[in-house]
Structure formats: C-alpha cells, structure tokens
Amino acid sequence: MRLLVFALAATMAFAADNPWDKVRDLKSGTELRIYKNHSRQPVLAAMDEANDDNLIVVIKNEQVAIPRNDIDEIDYRPLRRGAKMVKETRTTSTEAHGSAAPAPNTQPGPESSSSTSFSSQPKPDFETIYRRPSAVPANQEKK
Length: 143
Prior knowledge:
The protein has helices spanning about 1-15, 20-25, and strands spanning about 30-35, 45-50, 55-60, 60-65, 70-75, 85-95, 110-120, 125-130. The protein is mainly β. It has a domain at about 20-80 and about 125-135: SH3 type barrels, CATH 2.30.30.100. The strands form two sheets. It has a six-stranded antiparallel β-sheet. A two-stranded antiparallel sheet has the order 6-7. The radius of gyration is 29 Å and the shape is rod-shaped.
C-alpha cells in the first residue's frame, strides 16, 4: 500500500514538473523561436498546438510538425500588455512680454502650442519556456 501511495505521489510530482506541459499551454499564434538539434539558426514560427510527439507550428503560412525529439530549446514571446500604440500630447505655454510692438493681427497675452505624437510599443523579448532535459548517464541511473 505504501508503495502504491509513493508511486502515485512520484507520478504527480513528475507531471507537475514536466516542461513540455508549459509548451502545450501556450496559446495558438504565440511567436516561437525553436532551436533544433544540430542547427545553428533558430526557426521562427507561430504556435499551433503540441502533443506528446510533435510541436505543430505555422511557418510562412504553412503548417509544419517538428518532432519533439528534434527540439533542444523553445523560446516564446510573451503577449504584449496594454495598447500597441502610445499617444503622447505636449502642450507648451509662453507669456508674451510687451516691450516690442505686437505684430499685426495678433492679440497680446499668453500663447500656447500643442503637439501630439504616436509611437509603437516595442515587442517584449523572448523567454525560454522549454529546454530538452539532459540525459542521465547510464552509470548514475540506478543509485
């Protein structure tokens, strides 16, 4: 009975620490950077879905399945919080000093000007979500 309880607890602990589960939880469309075995350049793709054997992504409007065993690391770009565009309005006020004669068609007194600009928020940096677990050496398996 104790062995059964221990085995169940170990299975639940392993399932909670399974890094592939985090990949499965990513939303469809999330930007990914995938580092494959023996490849220097990462693959840039959009998340579609993940199962036990494959990561299914979209690369240039084409759905591609990448075997899980071929993946060393996966980075994802977190969703941007807030608006994509930022509006900034600046208003400046100046007090006219009347020592010189006012220009024709102007009113004496304070002057103000206002300018509005729009800029885009930068995308957040990629964060690592999965790294292939390192293999346990054969001489350390049964200690």
